[in-house]
Batch of 2 targets.
Target 1
Amino acid sequence: MRSFRKLSFLLLLLFSGFAVAAQKKFLEGWVNDDTGKPLRFAFINIYSKGQYLSDAYTDERGHYQTYIDANTDSIECIKRGYKDAYEKMEGNSIINFFLEEKKPVIKYEKYSFSVEGTHIYTAAELRKRTADSIALDKKIKEFEKEKEKEEEKTLFTKVEIESNYKGGPTSINNYFERTIHYFDSTGFPEAKGTVKVKFLIKEKNKVSNVTLVKGVNKYADSIVLHAVSKMTEWNLGMVNGREIESYKELSVKFNIQAIIPENLKIKKKKGSLIKP
C-alpha cells in the first residue's frame, strides 16, 4: 500500500513538472542596425498586457535568448542611440529586430543683424565677378549631376506608387496555397504562430534580401522564406515618374495542431499509467 502511494506521489510530481515546463517556451533572435551590423547590449523586454515580465540582452553577435510563458503577448527592443522597436508575440520562437539609428538633434539660438551700404565695382572686380560666376555655374551643374546619380541609388521605404504583386492580395493568397505545404514528416508536428519576412523589390519580377523577422519553427520558417524568394510577379514602385527599389513585409499564419491517434494515447488506470 505504501509503495502504491509512493508511486502515485511520484507520478503527481512528474506531471506537475511537465505542466510547468509546457507553460515555458524558448525564444531567441538577433538585433542588427538597418545596415545589418550586429548590436551588442540591446535590451529585450518581455510584456504581458502592458505589464513587464522579464528581460534579456544581446551578446557581441547581436544574439539574445530567453524563456517566455503563455501570457507573453509583446516584446520590446531598446538600444541607446536607436529607435525602440516592438513586435507582437504570435506563437513565435524567433523574433529579429532591425533598429533605425536616431538622428542627433542640435539645439541652437538664432541671432540676426543687418549691414547696409553701397559699393562701386572697379573693372578688375567686374572681370573677377564674371569669372567667379562662370566657375560657380560649372560647380552647380556638377553638383546636380552627382545628386541625380545618388538619387538613382537611393532605396525608398515610402514611395508615390507602392510596389505591388500582379493580381493583388488574392493572387498572393493563391500563390501561397500552391507553394506552402506542411507535411507530416517535417519533424515539427505542431506549428501555431506567425512567420514574418522582410524583402526587397529590386528588379521587376524579382525579390532579394529575403530576411526572417519573426519565426515559429525551422521548417515553417524555411518554407515561407523559400516561397517568398521564388515570387516573380512583383512590379517596382514609382517616385517622380521613375522606378525605384523598396522594402516589403509579408506574414504567414500557421495553425497546425498535433493529433495523437487513439491507439497511441497513454491511458490512466487505478493510479498508474499503462499503454494499451
Target 2
Amino acid sequence: MNRALTRGGLVDWVAISLALAVALAGFWPVFGGPAFIGPALAGVLGGAAVAWVGAWQRLSTAPVAVGLVAVYFLVGGAVALPTHTIAGVIPSGKTLSDLAVASITVWRQFLSATVPVASFEAMGLVPFIVGLVASGLALSLAWRVHQAAWALIPVGAAAVAVIAFGASVPFQPWVQAGLMMALVLSWLAYREAVGAPWAGGAGAAMATGAAAAR
C-alpha cells in the first residue's frame, strides 16, 4: 500500500515537520522575532503537499520538482512580496519576475543585510525556500524509500542552511539539538517497530550529524 496514504505516512509527516520546525527556529535571532514563521510554515506545508501528491500519484522526480517550483511562484509573493501581488495574495506578472530574480539574489542580500532582517523586503523568501525544498525532499524520501534514514539528509541540510544564514548568536542551540535528536530517534524507532528499516548505523550517523550541526 502507498505509505503516504497510511497512518504511518501521517506519523512521518508529523515527525519530519516538527524536526524542520526545530531547525527553522534558528532564524529567530536574525529576523529579530517571529516574522519568519509565516514564510517558513508556508514552505514546509507547501513542500509536504507536493511530496504527498507525488507519492500518491507515484510521480517521477521531474514532476515533483516542477511542483515545488510552482509552489514557490504561486505562494512566494504572498509570504514575502505581498506589496507586489494583487490583493496581497494573487501573483502578478511583476511578482513572478521579482520572484525569479530573488531566487538568485536574495541569498547574498540576506547575508549582507543588517540584523534584524525582517524590515527588509523579500527576506522571508529564505526560510520559505529552505522549508519548501527540505520538506518536499524529506517527505518524498520518507514515503518512497524503504530505508527511512535517507529522509534525514534534507532535514540536516536545512539545519546547516539555517546556521549558514543565521545570526552570529545561535538560537538556543542545545535545546534545538536535544529536541532534534529526540524527534529523529523516536521517528526512526517507530519506523523500525513497524517494519520500515532505517539503515542501521548509517541512519544513526545521519541523525547524530543533523542534530550536532546545531
